[in-house]
Amino acid sequence: MPTVLRRVVITGCAAGLLAAQLLLGAGAALAQEAVGVPAQEPQTAGEKTSDAPPKPDTQDKASEEAEKPPEPVALPKNLAVEVELARGLSSRLESVEKAVLRVQDRDNELNERLPTIDKIIADAIKAADELRPDRADLKSQIDRLGEAPKDGESEAENIASERSRLNALYAEVDGAIKSAELTVVRGRQLLARIQALRLQIFRRGLLTQSPTLLTPSLWQDASKALKLAGGELAAISDDWTSRVRKKFGLFCLILGAALFVGVLLHVGAHQARRRMRHLPMAEHPSYSRRALIAGLDAPLRMLPKIAAAGIIYVGLQWADLLYLQVGGLADAALKAIVIASAGTAFTTSYLQPARPDWRVIDLGEPTAWQVRRLVRYGIYVFAADVFARTLINVLALPLSVNIIWVSFVCLGFAYLFLRGSGIRLVQLENSDRPAIYVGGHLFRIFLFVTAVAIVALVLTGYVAFAHYIATRLVIVGTAIFLLVIFYLANRAIATAPELGLHQHADSEPTMPIEFRLRIARGLSVLLDFILFVIAIPVLLVALGVGPNEIITLVNRALYGFEVAGIEVSLVKIGFALCLFAIIVLLTRLLQQWLGGTVLHPRRIEQGLGNSIRTGIGYLGFAVAMLAGLSYAGLDITNL
Predict the structure, then answer these.
(1) What residues does 568 pair with on adjacent strands?
(2) Chain centroid to CA 513: how far?
(3) Is 0.85 topped by the overall pTM?
């Protein structure tokens, strides 16, 4: 009975709920009819719903479609390549910047990054220059379409689509140009940052105080390291000897070829030098003849030694006998031989201590012998230092060994400088220039002060600074000596028509002496200019500037640099000066032609003719000035 009663109760509740739902639905229908709103009916698939307001999600989609930026326009193939290249330079520079941060404490690796940055800057400048004409063309096409319609105005659909396409292209090209220009600025800033880092490393290395030769622990560490290095050097020697035994026949052939070529060149060079000095007019040779013979004598002296060493080096390299540490030592040995051979050859050829009549630089007796001896010793010490420092690096010897070796090298240079300051300079008998005599004594004082400074730095522990001073003085002195030699050769060319060229009495003159003098002087001016161009990198290298830094300076001169916000290009300035000179020269030629024809006094009054010629000269000068300034990059439109 209770079960039946529960079922009745549940059934009654369900029926009541169903009745309540039906009543609520009927009330809602009556309310819609009362306010005039028709009841919604289910839509069929073919019925339209345009009268119904859009749903909220439909409105959002419409607004998103309206605000969505236009799709990027496809660039022409050649233009797309240039734009992609300009934009890709930024990522290349970013990778170099990260590499610089990783190696900011290592000078050599920082120096290796300079050519890469220069290449990126050059590519960025080139990319921007190639894209600027395309941007100008797009701008002119947009201007052809007229002004863009203002708010509320409309234009033809094809014009609007073309304007949109051209604007998109212009934005792409303009963005690529700006990206390339920004890459140039960032690249130059990175170069300046690298130079600052290298300068800090250089200063830190020079001013680092190390143990001196008077420190016992320095010698103890060095002796232990040398014992270990001796074993390592013996192992390297044994390994190389075993390889040589396997190719002993080829090794002997290489040495024999080098010996044969060296002896042959030595005999031939000796005979050639003797014949040059026994030519006619060799008793009292002129200055031009002495300079010419010295310029030929020096290469003949050094050629046999360098050729023999080069044959041995190339032969061993070809036989695969120069590997790892042996290859590094061979490179250093070849470099030392070249330095020693070239230095002694040039010193002997131009000082000529045994032949006073053939001296190009006549220092008198016995100064010539003393100077040649000291210079030779200095060259030998420098060559030995080049090889020994390479050996220390190859064997990875500790700092103590390097300090001891560099200290002895510095003291050796100081001794040579002291000996040089004690040489008595005799004023030349044929010299009427007392400035040379005074300059020689000032140079002696300079050598003495330098020697004392080197000794003081070595004894106080600043060995790197002392070594830098000694080697820079030797290298700079050698560079100046070579430049002076070439300058004297240029002067010899200028005076050759007067001093070195003589004709027999019975022979007719082939060329007037005045004409020959003009040619010789013009050639001398050209050679002086070439010497000046060569002297700049030579002196920079002598002062310690690396080849990569010189290339960076050359690139800045070629592609321009900023001074007070103004872009300066030495190449443009040079071409501007040439353009100015050409226009002025043409103006002078025009004046001369008019003076001999139209403006001749027989055809026109002399005062009027002179006035016209003067006016033409002023006009040509003004045109040349404006053309030069415009080509150099200065804006003259507001003048």
Answers:
(1) 561
(2) 45
(3) no
pLDDT score at 201: 84
Q: CB of 377 within 8 A of CB of 413?
A: no
What are the angstrom distances between the C-alpha of 159 and each of 142, 162, 171, 266, 571?
A: 10, 5, 18, 84, 45
**Could you read off the pLDDT of 11-24 as tens digits, one per residue?**
444 444 444 444 44
Provide the residue type at 564 as one letter: A
List, as own/partner pairs, every contact residues 322-331 make where C-beta atoms lie below 8 angstroms and the sequence separation is at least 24, other chains included. Answer: 325/236, 325/394, 325/395, 326/236, 326/240, 328/390, 328/393, 328/394, 329/387, 329/390, 329/391, 329/394, 331/390
CB 100 within 8 A of CB 184: no
Tokens linked to 49 = 């719903």
Residue 580 neighbours by CB under 8 Å, 6+ apart: 624, 625, 627, 628
Q: Output the CA torsion sign for 262, 268, 270, 276.
A: negative
Going by pLDDT thresholds of 50, 70 and 90, the confidence category of residue 635 is low
Q: Can you list the alpha helix ranges (DSSP code H) found in 207-323? A: 216-246, 248-277, 287-318
Q: What angle do CA 296, 302, 305 make, to 5 degrees?
A: 150
Report in angstroms the alpha-carbon separations of 425 from 366, 442, 449. Answer: 9, 11, 18
pLDDT digits (tens, 9 = 90+) for 482-525: 787 777 777 666 665 544 444 444 444 455 666 666 676 677 77
Instruction: Give me the mean pLDDT over the 274-302 stretch.
Output: 75
Dihedral sign for Cα atoms in the order 324, 329, 330, 335: positive
Is residue 590 a contact partner of residue 556, using CB atoms and an 8 Å limit? no
| For the chain, the helix, strand and coil percentages under 3-state DSSP, each to the nearest 5 | 80, 0, 20
Q: Are 439 and 399 in contact (CB under 8 A)?
A: no
What would the DSSP string read from start to end of 101-118? HHTTT-HHHHHHHHHHHH
290 burial type by CB count under 10 A (0-12 exposed, 13-18 middle, 19+ buried): buried
Tell me if 233 sits within 8 A of 492, measured CB to CB. no
Locate all alpha helices (DSSP H) within 145-215, ordered by sequence. Answer: 157-206
Summarize pLDDT for 405-417 with one digit per residue, the tens.
999 999 999 999 9
Listed residue (294, 288, 293) closest to 493, CA to CA: 288
